[in-house]
Amino acid sequence: MDLRPARAHEAGLLTELALESKGYWDYDEAFLAACRDELTLIPADVERRRTTVAEEDGRVLGFTTLDGIPPEGALGMMFIAPGAIGRGIGRRLFEHTAAKARRLGFARLTIDADPNAEPFYRAMGAVRIGETPSGSIPGRVLPLMEYVLTPR
Predict the structure, then answer these.
(1) Distance CA 127, CA 67 (A)
(2) Residue 33 confidence (pLDDT) above 80
(3) Which of 26, 32, 77, 151 fits a 20 to 30 Å CA distance from 113?
(4) Domain locations in the chain?
(5) Which residues pair with 61 in a beta bridge?
């Protein structure tokens, strides 16, 4: 498996991967439809949001975005294809994105985590610092997490 910068023409593919990944948690079609706008990438987003993909045999298995301006940033999106969950791809993408953030001068990243993904982010070393409103579902709150980027 290789990690590489995403390409602008992959924006639609990444949007669909994000929705499929979100669907892994048994959210219904109405919920996923409500999330579509928030999970949509357009070609201009790909470079601006520092998008990285995990690819194997020409197939994109996951991706992350690194948003913001140093020293404060966000792990804006992180999604793994449902059939690839549990293979360590999330860990590799997270560690790669954290290393990139350190190189770029970020001191910390926040994460608006899906509640189902909170245990993963805790395992990576992030801590819950509060809650944040969902950008898709009125009245829903998400765990707000923080990952401090210590020099290595």
Answers:
(1) 19
(2) yes
(3) 151
(4) 2-148
(5) none
